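ingest -> validate -> predict -> emit
validate: passed (alphabet ok, no gaps, 46 aa)
predict: started
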Amino acid sequence: MALFIEFLAPSRPFDFDLMLEIKDKERSSLLALEVLKNDPRFNKLS
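emit:
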């Protein structure tokens, strides 16, 4: 998860689509969503 967080910070100026391959499905998916809830790029469609 730390690598995902490290990736998001410098990518903030950019708006793009991202597809993740998550091995342990539900647990990591929920963690990724928790990280993304503070990212304005993710929330702009809500």
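The radius of gyration is 11 Å.
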